[in-house]
């Protein structure tokens, strides 16, 4: 690898890697439906050498767009084909050691690409690497600062409703419970390419539309939470052969969108956002609500927010930071 090792993040002028790729041979058949062919780059928001991922801000058809490119893991199942069907270019050889550049056939050489378009300023900020602060949110500051702030924001939940109403991703749904009270939909989070179980990552979206986050939960929601735990783990066991003991099942607080949802991911896989300051285990949440029905209404919760997050300013203005 020419770009070296070690992790580097953020910064401005990271367009070199991209320019290099531009000079690649372009196949006309493939570019016909390539909506990214006319993408014009504004800046690299963030990138990680370790995660082999880059977040780019630019324009697509005159609209603001965020594009995320990510190299995916090499699956065991493709090794045969990879060794037999690739072009191999020798790089160096020394004693018993030699290195190569292997060019796999196109279908084994995919880069996972996510496009957000039109992207709002929020999307752009979300992927921009920022300094973070830990905020202390009491029950009182939730109602006086956080709640008014999130109510005033226009986070679109259209994509969530599309899934619940089967207007999008219907074929990806793994399980669905149609009950109005305790129902939910379980499907792969689109961050997961579903090629290996190591990084299993599923999403449970509750059918009820009024629950914004953890803060809205009380003992009345226990049947909903237990239902998601029980049916979710059962479906994952049946479908993937992974027992509940190998799963990390949790909420984010603050979540990135205010429609209650639960993340299911492989315990061995450390996803960003599963750290102590943001993740709340579903089983802990259930226990807490059993011992105190108003636990999440009254308790102080701590969470990280980015330097340029509007919510941080609200806490500063209220002299709560
Ligand atoms: C999102 C959090 C949200 C940008 C990005 C991701 N899984 C989703 C739309 C459909 C989905 C998800 C918002 C948005 Cl990169 C802005 O995530 C989704 N479908 N996480 C699935 N299956």
Radius of gyration equals 22 Å
Say what the CATH topology of the largest domain is. Answer: HIT family, subunit A
Number of domains: 3
Tally of contiguous helical segments = 10
Strand residue content:
25-35%
Blueprint of the fold:
Blueprint: H1 16-22, H2 28-31, E1 40-48, E2 53-60, E3 63-71, H3 79-85, E4 87-94, E5 97-103, E6 111-116, H4 121-127, E7 132-137, H5 139-152, H6 158-164, E8 175-177, E9 184-188, E10 201-206, H7 222-240, E11 247-252, E12 261-266, E13 279-281, H8 282-291, H9 295-298, E14 301-306, H10 310-317
Helix pairs in contact: 5-10, 7-8
5-[(1S)-1-(3-chlorophenyl)ethoxy]quinazoline-2,4-diamine (DD3) binds at residues 114, 116, 123, 159, 169, 187-190, 203, 256-257.
Task: Give a brief description.
The protein is 27% helix and 27% strand. It is an alpha+beta fold and 321 residues long.
Task: Outline the structure in words.
- By secondary structure, the chain is an alpha+beta fold.
- The chain folds into 3 domains: 1-72 and 112-129, Scavenger mRNA decapping enzyme, N-terminal domain (Phosphorylase Kinase, domain 1), CATH 3.30.200; 77-109, no CATH class; 130-317, 2-Layer Sandwich (HIT family, subunit A), CATH 3.30.428.
- It has 10 helices and 14 strands.
- It is globular and about 65 Å long.
- The two termini are 44 Å apart.
- 18% of the residues are buried.
- Residues 1-28 have low confidence and may be disordered.
- 5-[(1S)-1-(3-chlorophenyl)ethoxy]quinazoline-2,4-diamine binds next to strand 6 and strand 9.
